[in-house]
Amino acid sequence: MLLEIDFNSNSPIYKQIRDQIIIGIAEGLLKKDENLPSVRQLSTRLGINMHTVNKAYKMLEQEGWIGINKKRGTFINTQFGGNKDVFLEKFEENIKPLLAEAEILNIKKETVLECIDKIMLNWGE
Amino acid sequence: MDIFLGFVIIITYLPIFIIGLFIDSLSSNKFRFGVTINKEITLDPEYNKINRSFKKRYCLMISLIWIIAYIIFINWGFKYGFIISILGWMLILFYLSANSNKKMLKLKNKYISKEIKKRKRVVEIGGEIEKKDKRNFSFFILLFPLLNGIISYYMYNYIPNKIAVHFDFFGMPDRYVEKTMFNVFQLIIIQTFMCILFLVIRLAVLKVPKRLDPKQPKTSKIRQNIARKKIANILDILNVGIMILWCYIQLKVLNIIKPLGIFDGIITLLILLGPIALVIVYYIKVGDLGDKIELDINEKIREAEEIDEDFLWKWGIIYTNKEDPSLIVTKRFGGGYTFNFGNPLGKILTIFLAIVTIGLFIMILFII
Description:
The structure holds two protein chains of two kinds. By secondary structure, chain A is an alpha+beta fold. Chain A has five helices and four strands; from the N terminus they run βαβααββαα. Chain A has two domains: 13-76, Winged helix-like DNA-binding domain superfamily/Winged helix DNA-binding domain (Arc Repressor Mutant, subunit A, Orthogonal Bundle), CATH 1.10.10.10; 84-123, no CATH class. Helix content of chain A is 58%, strand content 12%. In chain A, helix 1 (13-27) packs across helix 3 and helix 2 (39-46) crosses helix 3 (50-62). Chain B is mainly alpha-helical. In chain B, a hairpin with a 6-residue loop joins strand 9 (328-330) and strand 10. In chain B, helix 6 (143-155) packs parallel to helix 8. The longest helix of chain B has 37 residues, at 217-253. Chain A binds chain B through residues 1-8, 21, 24, 29-31, 34-37, 40, 42-50, and chain B through 117-127, 130-131, 209-212, 214, 217-218, 221, 307, 309, 321, 323-326. Strand 1 of chain A pairs antiparallel with strand 3 of chain B, so a sheet runs across the interface.
């Protein structure tokens, strides 16, 4: 998959890496058990500090998306052991301000649901 | 003889002169004198003026240096003339590129406010690229020095007590030494080191981080993959050529092959100039980023720009980025690769290379 870092974005680089790897898994571009570049390799390719990549990887590991092993390196987990209740709580917390913006901008509930459907349908493929 | 040697100097100096004249055409179309440019900048009349000024001043300065070198060569000898011409060429190129880089940066500043703000970097992760390339036969080139060593070992008792270790342009031996294990095997030791050096360079080139063009990442990926494969193959051809030449010289040292006169010189030139011609064709037709390859892919051009790193390139030549852990990066001025001066190992290797270059000049002056 292509990992794209926007240096002008308000979102920090480590978060951009984390988000895109998760999207990559959902889209099927990163397969389960597949190896990822090491912290050094990825920071070299992106030309950024190793701590930034390390932070993204540590976050992904803590959330259970990837495994980091001395022998195998960094790889996509075969089973994602995330807690659904915790996720839903986080989901609500993150989506709330966005939905509030939609409400202020008079965007209908159907349009928002259509938008979500469109994204998730793409992942299902 | 002096006139003949003068002619040889002109012939050997001519390719160096031409390379210098078109050196900036060897680098990616995205850069001019180490500065990231876009179409808008290329349309500015000042852009052509900078390019023309570089070529005009280069021709003038080189002509002057060549005349000085020729006078020195006639009065003091070949090696002094040679050193002056090469050193002069390097200094002229350095000065002109740094000066043109400054002018190009000034021109670019006019356009900065109009540029797109979306600065991105795109790389590839996952998929096939994390798997190591197992079909690599380049290491078999090491068989050349190995075979050379085996032949030399078995022939050791049959060769005369005095062996030739140096041959002139016509392939005739002009220096003899006593037969010792070291004298017989010294060429093979150097040959093995050279072979390993080429293999290391090949591996290093393949490992240089691939940064894709955010405007067309998929096309850029294909282009860079083609370019990497081609340069790796050229390095292998160059390595094999030099190994064959080395084996041929060793066979002459062992007295198995008799010198062929002028043909020896022609064979040597062909083996060395052939791959150099390949490299030049590679830079004109392909380029390190492969952006000179004609591809028939219709990828939509996105609104994004590669992150501007002009300020990290001193004089458009030296890359210093402490944040970037890369050891080797693609050069912006001329073809090839350079060390990251911000990386501690890169700094050591750059200084080491500079010392080796100065050492070579000193060796030519005082030892040869």
